[in-house]
Amino acid sequence: MSDGEPLxxxxxxxxxxxxxxxxxxxxxADLIDTPRRLAAWLDLEADRLPGDFSRSAPSPEDxxxxxxxxxxxxxxxxAVTEGNAPPPSALRALTEAQRLAPVVRELAxxxxxxxxxxxxxxxxxxxxxxxxxxxxADLLTDPGVGKVRQCEAEDCVLLFLPAHPRRRWxxxxxxxxxxxxxxxxxxxxxxxxxx
Length: 195
Hints:
By secondary structure, this protein is mainly alpha-helical. It has one domain: Jann2411-like domain (Jann2411-like fold). 48% of the residues lie in helices and 11% in strands. The chain is built from seven helices and six strands, in the order αββααααββαββα. The chain has a two-stranded antiparallel sheet. It has a two-stranded antiparallel sheet with strand order 3-4. Strands 5-6 form a two-stranded antiparallel sheet. β3 (104-109) and β4 (114-119) form a beta hairpin. α5 (88-100) packs across α6 (124-140). The chain is elongated. Residues 1-29 are annotated as: Disordered. InterPro entries: ABATE, ABATE_dom_sf, Znf_CGNR. Residues 148-188 form the Zinc finger CGNR domain. It comes from Streptomyces aureus. Pfam families: ABATE (PF07336), zf-CGNR (PF11706).
């Protein structure tokens, strides 16, 4: 995994927020800045999204809807992780995103029994924003949300939900290795300077 690839494997709302990472010289890099890159992210997350999301080609309007919900999720999560009340406007926006494409249990006959599959209707971006906002609502109302942390690497802004209380980095392969190499370099530099 390179710094230009989205970090995945955290709860879906964190994976979405983490598509805005620190780029060169501390500038923010948007890893889903085009419809094509959003489609690639949807493919990465396909096992956690309803099937119709990864089969559709996002439009610029769809991308805008995802960017908007991402900003509201991030504002809410950052406030909560800092022990502050989330912005009421972000909470309203996440609620509205869900309201625009509510889940309806679509009834069908499968030949032996009635089935009820959850479905949303509307444009891809509206459905996707609703699904992401609903995932955020699940995370934000979970007691574990207080454990969400920001990576301790100096130049990293990514969030994660640690499975182990001693976890310090978003990824051991990404930031953990850089921190270990930097510590080794500092120790080695100090020992050669003292010789």
